[in-house]
Amino acid sequence: MIERWALVSGLKGDLDTYELIQKDLKKTPGNITLFVLGDMIGPEKNCNRLLHRLINPKSNDLQPWCIYGWWEEQILLESGYRGDQRAETLRINKGEEVVKSLTNAVDKSFLDWIAALQFGFVELDCGLIHGSSKDIGENLTLDTPPLTLLDRLTRLQVNRLFTARSKEQFHLELTEGTVNSEVEDLNGNRKKEQKVPQKAVIGIGAGKNYTLYDVGTDNTQFVQAGYKSEKRIKGFGML
Amino acid sequence: MNQAVISCLHANLPAVEAVLKDIELQGITNITCLGDLVGYGPQPNEVIELIRDKKIPTCQGCWDEDVVDGLDACDCSYPSQLAEKRGHFAHQWTTDKLTKENKDYLANLPYSIRKDKCLFVHGSPNSQHEYLLPDMDAFAALERVENARAEILFCGHTHQPYIRELADGSIAVKIKNAAPKDIQEKEIQLPMRRIVNAGSVGEPRHGGTKATYVVHNEVTNEVKIREVEYDLELTCKAIIDAGLPQIFAWRLKNGFEFAEQAEDASHVCER
Fold first, then answer.
1. Is B72 near chain A, with CB under 8 Å?
2. Residue B261 pLDDT > 50
3. Domain B2-163+192-254 class, CATH top level
4. Which end of chain A is less crowded, N or C, counting CB atoms within 10 A of the terminal residue's CB?
């Protein structure tokens, strides 16, 4: 049977969208594993019903495998789960009201569950994270310099990196690369040519836009919940 | 015009004095220090005061940071828990010895110094604790320099001097899963960049006992590694007299990278 991953992020308390995705996935052929790459919560709406559903799936739900995202990090900071630090970046950029909205949107009883979530998963040769291997808040997009993308892949020692933070859907392959290195030290000189094996960075989207990944063929499908899957058309932009 | 870059002085006053003398003999007045003024060695206040007196621009090293902030960072290069214990002992000894004025000086050192196309850091642009080893992944090394918007990155921390040139690089990229007309392929040329590690003045780990530093010609871009002999016996005696672990003196005298073989694979980073 085909093995597929469904990669979801940015639900931000939207149980209706989550139910729509669950409904989609029931109709999707193959053996599907559901990963939720963070931002299950947000300041816009009450997130308790979604969190309850993620923790206590209905009997016919696909089991969600969740990691924490940028918004989870903010609530953990603000709630004292990161030592003396608080959500100052959020406070400075969005204001005190948004900080309050976020803490009001999540019942405190869920915080221990959120705090126990992992930064990411490594499955096969793939890294599944919210932002990047450097920073949970880092946006990786088609415009990110390839050298940076390669570094973020190297840090996790994976060949494919699934990321959600940018909210964009894309599948960028680093098909080949080379660099010459010459080192001079007290023992003399040595030269080496280093090559890049094929690697990829995949933006999975957010909210209703999610991604299906076929593990056997390395193909991605960009899907909008409630609609047929579609191929995304994206240019390189400022690459 | 030549500039000298020194790093990892580690409270070894005879070594620092010898290196500064060597720099002076070459007529070089432009000196930058990459931190770790203290730690392991027996003369932390004296070394800081010498650097301060000479007004040498200095970055904060990992030891400088830890002495100020407390041991919040783990030096993962410790080969064993025993070595780590000795490191912690040296940390406490140094903290006790330093004057408040010198601690304040260390606390206010910048993480990096930028001069035109050159960036000076202790470990890497990311952290005082990150090791840029001479044979690390070439793309990752290039990324550290490029994302720091530098052409030459001067670093220390490894105690092993080297000059690494990364050139003729390229990465080819392709958008997958797009309509055929929108599938794009591109080859991006990577810039030539250099990483220069100044080695260590006060605690060389290159297999020899000489202090090392580098001289960079800002016009020709040529970089030379300099080795300087100093009164090793004087420092070793001061280490023992100060009550610091004797193995620090033994290591200096032999130029060994580590005091013993790494036997404890279970070491867990504290960070």
1. no
2. no
3. alpha beta
4. N
